# Entry
Amino acid sequence: MIFWFAVDGQDAISKITSDKVNIVISDIKMPQVDVTTLLKTIKEKSPEIEVIIMTTCNYR
# Structure
């Protein structure tokens, strides 16, 4: 099992396009690239990648 950590959305896109990825777990809020753009890019380049989007933000 191999895993890596991306510091922002742009870093995640770079890693997805250069490495074999099976699953992405992403926060809904991140710098550089929003989660919608990240998800769209993942599904365009590698639709087989499973994606889990979550957050720890408190939206009260």
The mean pLDDT is 84.
